[in-house]
Amino acid sequence: MSQTDPDPKLKPVLVPSPARTEPAMLSSTEDEGFLSDPAALEDERRPGLNGEPVGVFEADHSKRYTRIVPFSEKMDSSVEFFYDPRTLTALAGALVALAWVAMSSDVLPEGRSKERLGIYCAIGAFLLFAMLQFRDGPFIRPHPAFWRIVLGVNLLYELALVFLLFQDRESARHLMTHLDSALGVPLPDKSYGDACEFTVQNLWDQIDIFCLAHALGWFGKALILRDYWFCWILSVMFEVCEYSLQHQLANFNECWWDHWIMDVLVCNWLGIYLGIKTCQFFEVKKFSWHGFRASRGIRAKTKRVASQLLPHDWTVFHWHGTRSLRDYVSVVALLTILLAGELNVFYLKTILYMQPEHPIVITRLAMIFLWALPACAEMYQYCSSTSRVKRMGAHMWLLMATVATELLCIRKWSVGLFPAPFPARVKLFWAVFGALLVLYPLVKFGVPALRRKLRRDVKRRRRDGPASRSGSVSPVNGVVVQEEKKKE
């Protein structure tokens, strides 16, 4: 039975429009013209009637509802060629390149080790599949395929972590030497808390390349979170975590002015300020995308190609952490994930004997930035659009899995490596902090909800009290009818 021919036994219920007007049924010609109109298609993307879902037999079929046409949505038509699907062409090209690399004696002479090149080609084949077949994320610039590759790299890293999770500490260190033979050598402990006198010379001595890295890192976090106060909370909490873990990691042992002046008030503030200003620039910037063919002249065409690296549009994030229990839990969870992702890299480079400037460490920091950009956008959609977004996005889901797997590896490999116990003041601080995290939502959301429930129960008892003595009350067409009880 089709949707337009409902069961005659079921009585359809007409859903009147707000204007109380009944448009005539569209003819086939008018219907085709309506569907071919891009503006009409844009309006048609809203599901149901005025955004509200409508059942099959409750719908008034004389009205236009959402028509689902597969592959009808165009992400961006300003550069048409780059958005045409060419999966079969890419597959044919990849197979030709793979056959040439695998069978050409010029590329792989006999007797040469082929394991490394085979692994690289397997990774390339997986990323090609990810680029062509993975689901699109929240971003479409510079191209949706770019963010599919980013998701594929995240998945490869997660699979590598799962493999390393089943190795012991020494085996993991030995495996890292296959990537770089210089690894596997214990690192000297470096502490920044030796000369803590607050002098100009000591301040100058602490300025190095890592200050620029701090500023760039917080510039990236500001672009990810797009919220000034969220960045400041994360900045302060990271310094608190450094205080709490300095008995395990020597490079966390810094002077007080290094924590709060050099890091928080100088490097972190500079990065956050520039990042938020960049967000405000994109927020007020008017985006006008013209096609490549519509651009006249070499300069205009070059500018149009360069603008492909800019966002297509910009969404302002408002993290209302105290609006509801769901928002509170989401903000705390996001804060925890970002903090854990920051701390994991310090533990991993210490356990696996990698210098802070090693390319693997720098690559991991750069990739966590690319992974977190769409992940936080998906997290914001999940928190703010609860009626439309019913599940977590793939980027955020995989980022949570990656951070959790890193924590499992660190927990397994750090057994016996950090024998010093946590100081009593650290345990006391985190106990009080955890209690406040639990008590706040109980007082903010639990107590008012309990009061509302008690008031509803009292009103229900007052309303049902007279009815239980005189008879039952049943609404029929908005009229309350009293039915006398039958006497036995």
Summarize the structure.
This protein has 488 residues and is an all-alpha fold. Helix content is 58%, strand content 2%.
What descriptors fit this protein?
488 residues, two-stranded antiparallel ribbon, 2 strands, 58% helix, 2% strand
Secondary-structure topology with pairs:
Elements: H1 28-36, H2 38-44, H3 87-103, H4 115-133, H5 144-165, H6 169-176, H7 200-205, H8 209-225, H9 228-245, H10 256-284, H11 297-306, H12 325-351, H13 359-384, H14 394-413, H15 424-470, E1 472-476, E2 479-483
Antiparallel strand pairs: 1-2
Helix pairs in contact: 3-4, 4-5, 5-13, 5-14, 8-9, 8-10, 8-13, 9-10, 9-12, 12-13, 12-14, 13-14
What do you see in this structure?
This protein has 488 residues and is mostly helical. Helix content is 58%, strand content 2%. The chain has 15 helices and two strands. The chain has helices spanning 28-36, 38-44, 87-103, 115-133, 144-165, 169-176, 200-205, 209-225, 228-245, 256-284, 297-306, 325-351, 359-384, 394-413, 424-470; strands at 472-476, 479-483. It has a two-stranded antiparallel ribbon with strand order 1-2. The longest helix is centred in the last third of the chain and has 47 residues, at 424-470. The chain is globular, with a radius of gyration of 30 Å. The two termini are 50 Å apart. The model is unreliable at 1-45, 59-78 and 472-488 (pLDDT under 50).
